[in-house]
C-alpha cells in the first residue's frame, strides 16, 4: 500500500516537473513565436496582426508570469493540454493517434530482449567464471557500448542497404518491425543478460540453493523450482527502470526509420517548438514510467512476500 | 555481493581501457599538431575524395577534411560530457551527503525530486532544456547535468546512509572525532570508487545522448563537426564513400567502449 | 555394521594440506562429534565426506557409504547420495530455506522428487512431518515469518524427507541462544532412532556434552584425541583439549570483585526505551561504579544494544534519566562491538586509525606501544587492514583504541560471541583486569548466562517485553545479512 502511495507522489511530482519545464519552454519562445504559430495554424497567407495577437493572448505569452504559471499548471492537472500549435488538433487526440504504433514497437523490443538476454545470462550465472560467462561479458559489454541510434544505423547499412533483406524505413507490415525492434532489443538484451547473470550467480551462491541440492534435488529441479523464481524478482525490478532507456530508444529509433509513433512526434514537436505537444507527450511518457513501475511493484510483491513488509 | 560472485576482471581489461581512451585522447589533442588544417574549410572539388597527406582520413561530401572534423568532434562532446559529469557529480555528492546527514524533510524532498526525474527519459529533458537555453553547447551541459546528478545523488545517499550508521562511524563519534574527519576517512573511501564508475558511465551516457540527438537533427547544428551529425550527413554517401561514414562510427564506438569498460562490465 | 566409513581423508588447497589424513567410522545409534575451533579443519573434513567442498579445494581418500565406496576426490559421485543416504543440515537454517516458498512445499518437494511419492502423498507426508515437529500451524508460512527455531525444524524435516539414514550437522547451534541449544540437541538425537547415524561438527562443548556418543578433537587439520565423549570431556588427555575445556565459561572460577566499590560513573533511573515504535526497556534503574562489571543478559532482541546506545548518549530515552558523573569528558564513555571488523574503517591501516585517535587525545607517543604489550598484541598488526586480522586480535585492538580515549566506562556489546572459546576467555580476562587496575566501569552484554554469572558483579536480565516476539524475529533476521534483498535492488 505504501508502495502505491509513493508511486502516486512520484506521478504528481513528475507532472509538476513536466509542467514547469514546458512552461519555461513556452516563455522562452522567441518574439515572433505567436506570429509563427499563427502562420502554422492558418497558413502564411492568412496571418495578420489580429490572429497573432489572439494566439499571444491564448498562450499567455506576455503578462505576469506567476498568474500564467498557475493557469498553466491548472490546465495541466485538469488534463487539458490544449491544441497542437502546429496542426491545431487537440493534443490528446494526436497522442491517442500515435501511442499505439509506439506501444507495439516497444512491446516487440522488450519481448525480443527478454528472449535473448535472460536465458543467456542465467546460463552464464550458473557457472560464474566459466568460458561462456567471460565470452558473454565481452559481448554484452561491447553491445552496451553501441548506442541505439548507432545500432539502427549499422542494421540499416547491413540488412537493408547492403543485403536488401529488410526495408530501411516504413510502417504497416510485420517485416517493418524487425529492424527497429532489433535495434532496440540488442542493447536492452545486453543489460538484461548482465542483470540475470549477476542475480543467478548470487542466488546460486546462497545457502538455500546449496541446501536444495543437499535435499537430493537434481540441478535442473533446483534451477526450476528455486533458481528462476528468485532470479525473476531483481530482473523484474530492473525491467521497470529500463523503461526510461526503452523510451529514449523509441524516440530516437522512430525518428530514424520514420515510425509514426509518439517519439517521432515528440522530436517533431521539439523542432517546431510545439509546446503543448511536447508537454502532452512528456507527461504521457513520465506517467507511463510510473504506471509500469507501479504494476511491477505489485507483481514483485506477489512473487516476493518479503517485499510487503 | 561478494567478490567470488563477480567475474574476475579481465586481466587485459585495464590495459585495453588505457589503450583505447589514450588513443582517442591523443588523436583529439595532437591531431591538428600532426596535420594542421581547418575543419570548416570547404573544397567542393575534393568532395568525398580519398585520403591524402593534408587530410589523412579523406574528405566529406562538401570536401572538408574528415581528420580535422573528427578532431573537433572528439573534443566537443567529451568536453561537454565531462563538464556535465563534473557538475552533476559535485551536486549529487553534496546533496547525497546532506540528505544522509540531515535526514528528515530535506532528505524526503530530495528523494522525491530524484525519483521523479528518474521517471522522465533523459534525452527528453535534454531536448526541453535545449529549447530553453540560448546556446546549444551550454544547453547540452545544463540538460545533461540536470539528468545525471540523480545517479550520483542516489549512490552517495545510499552509501552514506549505510556508512554513517555503521559501528565504525559510531566509534569515531564516541572517540570524539568531528564530521569532517568521518567524511574524509570513513565515507570518502567507500564513495570514491563508486563515483569513478558512475562518472565513466555518465560520460558515456552524455556522449551517446549528444550523438543521438545530432543524428536525428535536433542536437548540434551544422556546420559544427559533431559525431552524430557527421554520421547523418555522410549516410547518403554510403555507397560512394563507405570509409567516410565509418570514420565517425568507429571513433564513437571506440570512445564509448573505452568508457563502458572503465565503468566496469557489470554496471547497469 | 558401519553406516559410513571414511579412510585417509585429506583436503588440499593447491599444495597446502588443510586436513591431514583423517579416518573415521559412523555406527548406527552412536553419534560422533567432531570438536574444534575455527580453522581446525572440522568443517572441511565434513564437507569432504559429503562431497560439498568448494571447487577451489581438492580432497583425497575413500568414503564408504551404503555399501558403495567412493573416492573423495570425485565430487560428482556424491550427488546421488544427498538426500538418499546422507541428510545434510545447514549451518544457518533461515538462509537455507527458499525465501519465496512456503514451509510445507519445501519439505514436500523432497518427498516427491527424491523419494518418488506422488504429489498428494508427498504433501500428506510433509504435513505429518511438520506436525510431528510441532509445526502444524507453520506449514503455510514463508521462511521470513518463522522464528529461528522453527526454521531449524523445517530445515531438518526437509533434509530428512528423502529418507537418508545418516544425518550430518555442521555447527547446528551457530548464532543460537543457550536456551535453544538443548532443543537442537534433542532434535538431532531423534535422528538416531531406527538405526540412523549422526555426525555433529561443533565448537560448542555444551552441545557435545548433550549429544554424547564418541568425540574426536581436531586441531590444525589433525586428530588430537578420540574416545567416548563423556570420558574425553571429564579426563582430557591432550593439552589442547584441556585448554579448550578450561576456556568454557562452565569451568571458569568466579571473579572476585574488589571489596571497595568505586565512585558512581553513570546512573540510569526509571529508564524506558523504544525503537521503531516498539517498547524495549521499561522502567529500568541501574548504577555503574568504577571497577565494577555489570552483566546484562536476555534473549535476542530484548533491547540490550539499545540500552547501550542510550547509556552512551546515542539514543534518547522515552522516559527516565541518565546521569553521568561530573567532570568526565564526553569521550570517557566507550563501546566494544560484537563484530570488530565493522567497527573500524574498512580501507585504513589499523595503525593509522590508532595514531589518529592518539593524536586527538594527545596521548604520549609510547602509549600505543605500551598498550600493545599490555594487550599482548604484535606491533606488526598495525600495518594491516581490519579485514586481514583475526577476530580476537581485532577485538583487542578495538579495546586498545577505546583505552586511548582514557575511558571511565566501556559498554561491551557481546564482544566475544563470534570468537572461539580460548580467545573469548582471554578477552573477558583482559576486560576484568582493566576494570580492576584502571578503575573502569564495564557493562558486559552476553547471551550466555553462565559467562555473565562468572564475571559480573551485578547482573541485569532484560526480559522480553510483551508482544515483542515478532519484532525480535525481525531484528534477528535483519542481522542475517543474507535475508536482505539482493544488492542490485538498492
Automatic annotation (TrEMBL), chain A:
Keywords: Cell membrane, Membrane, Transmembrane, Transmembrane helix, Transport
TM regions (residue ranges): 103-123, 135-165, 177-196, 235-262, 282-301
Annotated InterPro entries: BPD_transp_1_N, MetI-like, MetI-like_sf
Membrane disposition: Multi-pass membrane protein
Key word Transmembrane helix present: yes
Family: Belongs to the binding-protein-dependent transport system permease family.
Protein known as: ABC transporter permease subunit
Source species of the chain: Rhodovulum strictum
Highest classification ranks of the organism: Bacteria, Pseudomonadati, Pseudomonadota, Alphaproteobacteria, Rhodobacterales
From TrEMBL, chain B:
Name of this chain's protein: ABC transporter permease subunit
Residue intervals passing through the bilayer: 15-35, 79-102, 109-132, 138-155, 194-220, 241-263
Coiled-coil blocks: none
Location of the ABC transmembrane type-1 domain: 74-263
Top-rank lineage group of the source organism: Bacteria
Biological process (GO), any one: protein transport
GO MF term list: dipeptide transmembrane transporter activity
PANTHER family assigned to the protein according to its UniProt record, in alphabetical order: D,D-DIPEPTIDE TRANSPORT SYSTEM PERMEASE PROTEIN DDPC-RELATED, OLIGOPEPTIDE TRANSPORT SYSTEM PERMEASE PROTEIN APPC
Cited Pfam families: BPD_transp_1
GO cellular component: plasma membrane
Family: Belongs to the binding-protein-dependent transport system permease family.
Membrane topology category: Multi-pass membrane protein
UniProtKB/TrEMBL annotation, chain C:
Disordered, as annotated region: 471-490
Boundaries of every ABC transporter domain copy: 4-245, 266-489
SMART domains for this protein: AAA
Principal localisation: membrane
Record carries keyword Acyltransferase: no
GO (cellular component) term, any one: plasma membrane
UniProt subcellular location: Cell inner membrane
A Pfam family hit: ABC_tran
Record's keyword annotation contains Transmembrane: no
Membrane topology, record value: Peripheral membrane protein
UniProt KW keywords: ATP-binding, Cell membrane, Membrane, Nucleotide-binding, Transport
Family assignment from sequence similarity: Belongs to the ABC transporter superfamily.
Name used for this protein in its record: ATP-binding cassette domain-containing protein
